[in-house]
Amino acid sequence: MLGIGACTRSEAPVLPDPILRLESMLLAPPAILLGDWLLVGRYEVTREEFGLAADPRGANLPVVMISFEDAAIWSEERGVRLPTMEEWQYLASDSGTLTTMSANSRNGLPLDLGHPLPVGVFERGRTSLGAYDFYGNVREWVHDPSIDRFYACGGSYASRDASSFEWEQLQVEPSERAADIGFRYVADATTYFRDEVLPYWDQLGPEQREQLKLILSDWRGPSRVALAVRLEVIGAPQDFCDFVSSE
Questions:
Q1: What is the pLDDT of residue 8?
Q2: pLDDT at residue number 3
Q3: What are the tens digits of pLDDT across the range 170-207?
Q4: CB neighbours of 27 closer than 8 A, spacing ≥ 6?
Q5: Beta strands in the chain, from DSSP E residues, in sequence order
Q6: What's the mean pLDDT in 36-50?
Q7: Structural domains in the chain, sorted by start
Q8: 45 neighbors 53 (Cβ within 8 angstroms)
Q9: Which residues of 18-33 are buried (b: 16+ CB within 10 A; e: fewer)?
Q10: CA angle 15, 198, 183 (to 5 degrees)
Q11: In degrees, to the nearest 5, what angle opens at C-alpha 165 toward C-alphas 159 and 170?
Q12: Whole-angstrom Cα distance, residue 186 to residue 27?
């Protein structure tokens, strides 16, 4: 089944990278009052995504040993960014619900592996939105703009406990690198669609639009409707807004 799906997709016209990236994102409600809806990476950024996977066996491992500055530059080049502390806590806690992760739902010290695993291995550790590994595998770079400090948040393969009661946040310098620190990106949804998706809209053929429709169908209907309303407010074409919100 997987092989057939991959073959079918490869025969269709290729989507532009900014649109294809939506396949790796989830759509989350605003983290702050009157804030924008958020696009959030389903997984921690992998070595392959970052451009470091010479060995295919390591392609789906989270990228590590990169500084906040490295991660921020990579993200900016792709129209995304690193999360603020408030956004990260909101997303990691399932939209504000305090959680505790059991030892068998994450890659942490109790498993005694001593290294990261490919992203998305622990289904039990997935948030209700569908994001993986917030509390295990590797810590994630976060910035707190209110006090201009940088943190590595979430549990890693080297941390014993992980819960949103304690947040597992370590203050670090943005130039530091560590074997258990990677990152996950976010984006303001309205801005991303306006700047990275909408410019390609009129260029997409029927097959490409069908591919995009399939990607968006993975998001909750009410969330897509809310995003479409915001896009309409900023002047996006009506047919594009209808496409985003339609089933």
A1: 41
A2: 39
A3: 899 999 999 999 999 999 999 999 999 999 999 999 99
A4: 37, 38, 39, 189, 219, 220, 223, 224, 227
A5: 25-28, 38-41, 139-144, 149-153, 170-171, 181-182, 186-188
A6: 96
A7: 44-183 (3.90.1580.10), 189-245 (no CATH)
A8: no
A9: bbebbebbbbbbbbee
A10: 70
A11: 45
A12: 10
Question: How many angstroms separate the CA atoms of 217 and 224, rounded?
Answer: 9
pLDDT tens, position by position, 202-232: 999 999 999 999 999 999 999 999 999 999 9
Q: How far apart are CA 214 and CA 240, in angstroms?
A: 15
- 114-128 tens-digit pLDDT: 899 999 998 887 888
Distance of CA 191 to the CA centre of its chain: 16
The secondary element (H helix, E strand) that includes residue 70 is: helix 68-76
Helices then strands, each counted (H, E), the chain: 9, 7
Q: Do residues 39 and 192 lie in contact, with contact meaning Cβ atoms separated by under 8 Å?
A: yes
Q: What values do phi and psi take at 170, rounded to 5?
A: -115, 125
pLDDT for res 107: 84
- Copy the structure tokens of residue 106: 């994450």
* CA pair distance 218, 247, nearest whole angstrom: 10
Beta strands in 9-132 (DSSP E): 25-28, 38-41
